[in-house]
Write a structure and sequence with these properties.
The structure holds 2 protein chains of 2 kinds. Chain A is 0% helix and 50% strand. Chain A is mainly beta. In chain A, the strands form 2 sheets. In chain A, strands 2, 4, 5, 6, 9, 10 and 11 form a 7-stranded mixed sheet that branches. In chain B, 0% of the residues lie in helices and 53% in strands. Chain B is built from no helices and 11 strands. Chain B has strands at 4-5, 10-14, 19-25, 32-38, 45-51, 56-59, 62-67, 72-77, 86-93, 102-103, 107-112. Chain B is globular, with a radius of gyration of 13 Å. The chains are: A mainly beta, B mainly beta. Chain A binds chain B through residues 2, 6, 9, 31, 33, 35, 40-43, 45, 48, 50, 59, 88, 90-92, 94, 96, 98-108, 110, and chain B through 2, 9, 31-32, 34, 36, 41-46, 49, 51-53, 89, 91, 93, 95, 98-106.
Chain lengths: 114, 113
Amino acid sequence: EADIYQTPRYLVIGTGKKITLECSQTMGHDKMYWYQQDPGMELHLIHYSYGVNSTEKGDLSSESTVSRIRTEHFPLTLESARPSHTSQYLCASSAFKGKGTEAFFGQGTRLTVV
Amino acid sequence: DQQVKQNSPSLSVQEGRISILNCDYTNSMFDYFLWYKKYPAEGPTFLISISSIKDKNEDGRFTVFLNKSAKHLSLHIVPSQPGDSAVYFCAASANNAGNMLTFGGGTRLMVKP
């Protein structure tokens, strides 16, 4: 069973508010990721990190920002939420495993901006 | 440009029969392939993987086949069970790209009792 946790599970918030989505893992994984998924659509990588103090933007442009001050923690922040940010946000972590990488996902945060 | 494609958005199968989910990729540098299963309002869970040095990997009812020349992989579930109903995502990674996972669009599998 994967030990990666996201909070909150569901969030409904007004336009213009600042929000932080939390993600923590207890597996000691160096790599962490944030994916965004709209209903019925593919998962899009929006941020990733190779380790502490490392953050990179993913394939999909996002107005969110991330930080990686501790190995186990990879929060995502939206400074000013908009309805276009309504989506499911999935955090994942991975460790190099032989020739490949298996990523473990949290349960996701479903964000609705009204 | 979508590097991993699942061309069937949905698949319906009778309980007990075989489910075959397909995935195509375009990046020849991909060397590791994974299948994830996702229930609504939950994160994807890892199901099975295959390295590019193999053409088949089996785990219980789940078997993944890889055809490198066709850049195609498939997931076979036999026998299918109603609890297998979920969205299945194919993913691929390349060792020279930091092993970042690229996902397909997913296929919704419905197994009817």
